[in-house]
Amino acid sequence: MDYFFYFSIQTWTLLIAFVTLFFVYANWTYGAFKKMGIPGPSPVPLFGTMLAYRKGFTKFDQQCFNKYGKTWGIFDGRQPVLCITDPGMIKTVLIKECYSLFTNRRNFRLNGPLYDAVGIAEDEQWRRIRSILSPSFTSGRLKEMFDIMKRHSANMMSSFTKKADKDEPIELKDVFGSFSMDIVTSTAFSVDIDSLNNPSDPFVANIKKMLKFDLFSPLLVIIGFFPFMGPIFEKMELSFFPKSVTDFFYAALQKIKSSRAKGEQMWLQSFLDILEKYPPAFLPAPCDFIVDHFNCKLKSSLDSAAPFAPIQYQPLMQMEYLEGVINESLRLYPIVPRVERVAKATVEINGIVIPKGMVVMVPTWPMHRDPDVWPEPEKFKPERFCKENKDSIDPYTYMPFGLGPRNCIGMRFALVMIRLALVEILRKYNFTVCKETEIPLELDIQGLVAPKRPIKLKLTPRS
């Protein structure tokens, strides 16, 4: 009897000790922002404030901005994340101290074979990769690629014409996603696909698999609860992306390298040069550009610029009102709702001591809708970005593609595609709402800013 009593005492002691240690572990980091004097929502053990993401990043960030002001703290699992919207702090983090203290993005160590991709690579390795890839996106290179873009825009217009003739609604994401995907595969992989008419093409299927993102995937949740598992998963080459997808792109790139060895021309030659030392650095995901409001002023500006002549690169880039429409659309619906960097050392900025290892996040959604910066922020007003007003915009309050040396490397590439697509369409058609159009638009809660359900509009020929 004494033995069993002694054994029971030991068991209960160990159990209580385990529960106590687990409770301490689960809450250990949650005093970080109280020590810093930074407000923020109360965390839940292990989950932190992540449960609020069930309503979407954008809603959560907007609520925090409205409640806590310019600066607040949240917790992704046990990871403290300092949220900043002050232009001065943003300039310091994303530009002034980018190379010395805030070079790297957050790395969940779930990249598999893509650990050297330009979006993930760190420190000197990132600098080398970026310096090799950057020449592929100069104005000269974009001009060279423009004819390829126009070839795919012709395919897009052919699809639009078929839909318009049948008076059928168009799913904008499918059409523009296919248009941008075709251009990316043609320029980066030297492969011509018609993804709009061939959705079962292997390139289409694998890119779509690669772009799927589950905020509450088991691997990501485990990393949030137990960050020390990250290096272990990395050694095991576990990844967000299915192995079949990465294997497919490696095989495709090896085939392209072989073609180059035979003397075949490649548009993004410097893109392949990096393969001698590093695995492939993939271009940004196709843009989910939402076209929900175009007025007579835009159409008349396009008509006066090039009413009938074939679209040329230089005149396209000089269409000022078109630029304003695109910029204002990206203000209201920035593709990337958050820009993140990790502090490599403890540093004081604007009186706030940011400890080494803390994630610093810039929430673009509430910043782009701040009434103190953007009067009538919910209204679509392209004139905000016209010549007369552009100089008054603080560059650290608008960042649909990020800012500084580590902004989106494909930004200019994407903007040329967007300009070309809009001019091609609006010279021939009007967009009109139909019974299938969802009003108001509801956003998806996962990852990038995108509609929860397809945006459907109809095209009517212009007289």
UniProtKB/TrEMBL annotation:
Membrane-topology descriptor: Peripheral membrane protein
Gene3D superfamilies xrefs: Cytochrome P450 (1.10.630.10)
Location of this chain's protein in the cell: Endoplasmic reticulum membrane; Microsome membrane
Chemical reaction(s) catalysed: an organic molecule + reduced [NADPH--hemoprotein reductase] + O2 = an alcohol + oxidized [NADPH--hemoprotein reductase] + H2O + H(+)
Residues spanning the membrane: 6-26, 215-233
Primary location recorded for the protein, binned into one broad class: endoplasmic reticulum
Species for this entry: Acanthochromis polyacanthus
Gene Ontology MF terms in the entry: heme binding; iron ion binding; oxidoreductase activity, acting on paired donors, with incorporation or reduction of molecular oxygen, reduced flavin or flavoprotein as one donor, and incorporation of one atom of oxygen; steroid hydroxylase activity
Required cofactor names: heme
InterPro entries registered for this protein in UniProt: Cyt_P450 (IPR001128), Cyt_P450_CS (IPR017972), Cyt_P450_E_CYP3A (IPR008072), Cyt_P450_E_grp-II (IPR002402), Cyt_P450_sf (IPR036396), Cytochrome_P450_3A (IPR050705)
Top class in the EC scheme: oxidoreductase
Protein family: Belongs to the cytochrome P450 family.
Entry function: Cytochromes P450 are a group of heme-thiolate monooxygenases. In liver microsomes, this enzyme is involved in an NADPH-dependent electron transport pathway. It oxidizes a variety of structurally unrelated compounds, including steroids, fatty acids, and xenobiotics.
Binding residues for heme: C408
Assigned keywords, A-Z: Endoplasmic reticulum, Heme, Iron, Membrane, Metal-binding, Microsome, Monooxygenase, Oxidoreductase, Transmembrane, Transmembrane helix
Pfam families the UniProt entry points to: p450
Origin organism lineage: Eukaryota, Metazoa, Chordata, Craniata, Vertebrata
Designated name of the protein: Cytochrome P450 3A
Record's GO cellular component terms: endoplasmic reticulum membrane
EC number: 1.14.14.-
